[in-house]
Amino acid sequence: MKSKITILILIIVVAALYPTVLFHLTQKKPQLFIENVIAAPKQKQVNSTLPLQIRIPKIKINAVIESVGLTNQGEVGIPTGPNNTAWFNLSPLPGANGNSIITGHYGYWKNNKPTVFINLSKLRKGDKIYIENGKGEITTFVVRESKSYNPEAEATDVFFSNDDKAHLNLITCEGIWDKISKNYSKRLVVFTDKE
């Protein structure tokens, strides 16, 4: 009889505690996680595996790589100036499995100065791209193909791959400049594979 009472008490205690445990797992921890994610950018972190430099000999590019996330409009960020490129930091590091993304400006900047990716369309299959990280390690990528997209087009293949290989995709604008929207009519993507 004593063991039945003990089991009954144990069941009542577990039943009483379970909602609290469930609440802590579903409410408290995600909330703390979100706070930590929001707070993370305020902490300066040095990561020597981050990409710092991109070189494309074929089109004479030797540029700094910034790190960017999503804009307030939910779009991939772009570099701050005409000469730099930007690694999308929600994509894999260049050389890691998946599609790493680097963006750069197209066209002419103030004083008719050409931007970093103005000649990106000149890359052809087999051309090489070199990415250097903070450790001085260089990863080589080889151009596979280029594609032009409408800005609103579905472009899952740009951001995701399922072949367990490392890719680097370079994105810039192309096409006709629209003075009203202050944007180009197309997006150019150069798809590359790790050598």
Molecular structure report:
With 195 residues, the protein is an alpha+beta fold. It has two domains: 2-42; 51-194, Sortase, Chain: A, CATH 2.40.260. 22% of the residues lie in helices and 35% in strands. It contains two helices and eight strands, in the order H-E-E-E-E-E-E-H-E-E. An eight-stranded mixed barrel has the order 1-2-3-4-7-8-6-5. Strand 5 and strand 6 (138-149) form a beta hairpin. The longest helix has 38 residues, at 2-39. The radius of gyration is 24 Å and the shape is globular. The relative contact order is 0.14. Mean pLDDT is 79; it is low at 1-45.
Kindly summarize this structure in a few lines:
The chain has 195 residues and is α+β, with helices and mostly antiparallel strands. It has helices spanning 2-39, 156-159, and strands spanning 51-56, 61-68, 85-88, 98-104, 128-133, 138-149, 166-178, 183-194. The protein is built from two helices and eight strands; from the N terminus they run αββββββαββ.
